[in-house]
Amino acid sequence: MPTTSRLRARQLLWLLMPLGLVLAMWQAALLARDQALQGLRQDAENELRLSAASLVGHLSRHDYLPDLLASREMVRRFLASPESQDPMPLNRLLDRFRATAGVSDIYLIDRHGDTLAASNWHRPNTFIGQNYAFRSYFQDAIAGHAGRFYGLGVQSRERGYYFSAPVWLDDTAPDASPDGVMVVKVLLDTLEASWAEQDAELLVTDKDDIIFMASRPELRLRALQPLSGDEREALLDTRRYADEPLAPAGIEITGSPGEHSQRVGFRRGPLAEDDYLGLSRPMPAFGWEMHILKSLAPVIQAQWLAALLAGGLYGVVVLAGGIGWQRLRLRREREQFAERERRTLARARDELELNVQRRTRDLVETNRRLSGEIEERRRAEERLRQTRDELIQAAKLAVLGQLAAGINHELNQPLAAIRAYAENAAAFLARSRTEAASSNLAQIIELTERMAEISAQLRQFSRKSGDRPTSVSVPACFGYALRLFQSRLRDAGVAVERDWPEEEAWVRADLVRLEQVLVNLIGNALQAMAQTETPRLQLGIEPDGGEVRIRVIDNGPGIAEAHLGRIFEPFFTTKSPGSGLGLGLSISARIIDDLGGRLAADNAPGGGARFTITLPRDPGPEATGDTRPEEHDTHA
What we know:
By secondary structure, the chain is α+β, with helices and mostly antiparallel strands. It is built from 15 helices and 19 strands. The radius of gyration is 39 Å and the shape is flat. This is histidine kinase.
């Protein structure tokens, strides 16, 4: 009977264990889900508040501009008699204000709604001659008030926000009315581009629930909900969105995980494979509402992780309980065994003494062996410690040797140039041409400064640079590198071809490091074309979106296919012994990687090697407000 009771208790225990496991994992998953949702909701609220404030600040900083331009004497004088005046001075004035304020367009409209002057007068889709009397910003301003409007441009088909102000020729009379309207258009693409970098989807809807702005281009100019025929006709009458179809965005609410939040999904499109936590924030100043969608994938991951951790902890607790029960059972058995031993102690005393003596001898022998093993292990640990110190010293010597080799390679070209300039200066002094000699001496001073800067950069080669990247002019870097090699280019008869746009190309980088890389690439190209009959060096700059590609191409023998995979390895070189250490391309690749870019090598279609540097594009020091010098004064 006791055996049957114990069997039933064990069966009940085995039944309750998996139930407890399921319950623990379920409760842990629920708790983790609530905590993850709360954290995700707080992050979404903070991002939504900051994004809304950024949008309001971006738009509101231009609201003063129409009033400022409307008060200009040139604007009033032209509006008084537009038929008898040349509009070009006013067009240029508006274009200068447009460039300075960083807006899209500025234009002047007369009292009938016809555009008289515009900053885009030189473009095919100019506003001049267009009538905008139907726009609400014109109607508000001609009534004497400041106007605000958002929508698609009639000519440009670009989404923008419009500010308008009345232009008064006589604002002293009580019954005076405006004689024209000054309008400023601000584009929204730049702000949307910054949204795309966030780990969330941002939408801005108007009072008609039309998505006017979105971090995803596929969601722009779409309706949150399908529009009825009357609603679509009403929107077409306003011409706010021109003739855009305004198709539904495919958004559907799948649940409500908490107060003031929604669970959102997409029936189609690029976001259809995920669920999102949706929050909204009204923008009463513009009549808009901003929405943020945060992916619920982290919440699901937190649920699974908490469930697995709870299951593991439950298993540990069950295992600990089993071990405790087993130890209790063993303790009871020991007590029973001790009782039996006491009963037989009198009969087995002699045998026990013999066993104690035998075991004592065994213990002495065992202690002796253990002492020997301990001493042997101590000696092994001492040898291991010495070996480790030797390995550390060897690693330090290897790094020191690599750094010394890198410094020797990087200073070789400036030293050669210093020698050439010194020889030229001596020749000029012999001919009493002091100005030319002074110029060569100035180049030597500049190259010594460059050598100091290169050695300072090489000291930082093994770790990230601490300097903040600045706006760097790529053509200026090319100019410096070509000046460094001008004697070699002239002596070898190398034809230099420059292929870049007329406007200045800027990148976000470190000036000294980028020039160092270009000097390495051009020097390698000159060495590769040493046996070419008509050497030709092609230098190219190609802006592409948010990046700039910088190319150095020669017409030498090119790079063997077997060497393309190893060309950036340290100490790998195909040059003859004594011509190089094989560190130039390795150092150059490391520098470009530290600057947030990449360096690639291949063979040009027409023959020869082609090296391509890709770096983040920069709008320039004036646009970014970077007051630090873009280049060194020695070769600006």
